[in-house]
Description:
By secondary structure, the protein is mainly alpha-helical. The protein has two domains: 1-55; 56-141, Orthogonal Bundle (Arc Repressor Mutant, subunit A). It has helices spanning 3-10, 27-54, 58-68, 76-83, 87-99, 121-141, 147-172; strands spanning 74-75, 103-108, 111-119. It has a three-stranded antiparallel β-sheet with strand order 1-3-2. Strand 2 (103-108) and strand 3 form a beta hairpin. The relative contact order is 0.09.
Amino acid sequence: MSSLRESAAVEAPVADAESRLHHDDHDALRLWLRLFACTSLIERSIRTQLRESFAMTLPRFDLMAQLERAPQGLKMSELSRRLMVTGGNVTGLTDQLVSEGLVVRKRVAGDRRAQAVSLTREGRKVFRKMAEAHERWIVALMAGLSPGERDRLYALLGRLKRGVAAMASQESS
């Protein structure tokens, strides 16, 4: 029995992505579903915290995070690309944030059709508070791992990411 099978055998069953597994499923499938379950649990926790603490959704927080990294603002098309969502989704999120005074739209010089979006002063202030809380929540969620375990997991996931990216680039060629 592999170490992935042994570790799954001693854990209490949880109704999540891993609950679909069978004892004879491939270790790679077990690992994928474990990663997916962890991601889903973390995301659910962050969504809840953002909603309860700031009346904010995760997509709106993500949009503000992109704008915080680009003080000069971003075109709507660039926001859409960075967030990996449709232009319509970005427009809806932006409309909400504009109505709350957290972001502002400006025409892009030399391009009549394009608009750039940037955080307002109030938006930067609100985002800063949310980002500080977000970091605390992530630190708390990762507290079950020692610093060395986090370092090892980070390194291993980096190797996995590079391998997956290399395979994806070969598939798209």
